[in-house]
Specification:
Blueprint (H helix, E strand, L loop, with lengths): L1 E9 L5 E10 L4 E5 L6 H8 L7 E6 L2 E2 L5 H7 L3 E4 L11 H6 L8 H6 L4 H13 L15 H14 L4 E5 L7 H18 L3 E4 L3 H7 L2 E6 L2 E6 L6 H8 L5 H24 L1
Parallel strand pairs: 3-8, 3-9, 6-7, 7-8
Antiparallel strand pairs: 1-2, 1-4, 4-5, 9-10
Helix pairs in contact: 5-6, 6-7, 8-10
Length: 272
């Protein structure tokens, strides 16, 4: 479980990126974090793992207060937090397998990591994860030979290789086409359910957030202005998050996408 208490981030300029943000994320729950550009979404997930240092407040991962840790303890704690980036953050010249195994770097000695000699159990796990994310047979491909969707799948496998207790996902579909975006969101929610992983997904696409996440948190100017199930994200809630707009077309698209998703699920069930 993740608990965020009164998390605040104020920059030296005096700008407040986050203002007393509080929420609890139970085991296995996937949250869509939405809001306009500059609302504090990326700052929030980076404050959770202290890639950005919060000004005040607390972040507790199960029994561990992340905000009190010194550098050595923080390095160890970050093994428990899988991070998936918008721009994939892969080492382009390395193979898919080498990129996935980099998720195990926090668990092996310096010399093993330097020589890229990982235990057989880690290699077996990496192959299993590649199969799970749909990249069977691509272990020896270079990362720079992959499509955007395939690179994101490598990032998911690498995060899972850490055996994390929490996933933080920063705009996983921003560079992908609509069909691939749905596949990636479906994969993320499936693996979270399989591993009982709580996850925060920073996402600009409200329709995808409604379709695939169990809960939505809306930020505006660094404050939570909505926290609830996707079904409660009506025009009033969207206006509170983004400002005045005609939301009818977007809500219709969300309904149509949900219907299409149900139809696809029904078809797959019929083929099983």
């Amino acid at each position: 479980m993740l608990t965020v208490e009164n998390l605040t981030k104020t920059y030296r300029s005096g700008d407040k990126a986050l203002q007393r943000v509080s929420f609890t994320l139970p085991k296995g729950q996937v949250v869509g974090l939405i809001g306009p550009s500059g609302a504090g979404k990326s700052t929030l997930i980076r404050c959770v793992n202290r890639l950005v240092e919060p000004t005040s407040g607390r972040v507790l991962l199960n029994d561990l207060d992340l905000t009190t840790l010194g550098k050595p303890a923080l390095r160890r704690a970050r093994r428990r937090i899988g991070m998936i980036f918008q721009e994939y953050a892969l080492v382009e010249r390395l193979t898919v397998m080498e990129n996935v195994l980099s998720g195990r770097l926090g668990y092996v000695s310096f010399w093993r990591s330097w020589m890229r000699r990982f235990p057989g159990s880690d290699i077996a796990t990496a192959f299993r994860l590649l199969d799970r994310v749909g990249l069977e047979g691509r272990a020896d491909s270079r990362a720079d030979a992959l499509s955007g969707g395939q690179r994101q799948r490598v990032g998911i496998a690498r995060a899972l290789a850490q055996e994390p207790e929490l996933l933080l996902v920063d705009e996983p579909t921003a560079s992908l086409d609509p069909k691939t975006s749905r596949k990636i969101m479906r994969l993320l929610t499936e693996v979270c359910a399989e591993h009982e992983l709580p996850a925060i997904i920073n996402i600009h696409d409200v329709v995808l957030a409604q379709q695939f996440t169990q809960r939505i948190i809306g930020l505006r100017a660094g404050e939570i202005v909505f926290d609830g199930p996707p079904s409660d994200l009506d025009s009033a809630a969207l206006t509170a998050i983004y400002g005045e707009e005609d939301w009818s077309a977007m809500r219709q698209a969300a309904a149509e996408d949900a219907d299409a998703e149900r139809d696809q699920t029904d078809r797959m069930a019929g083929l099983a």
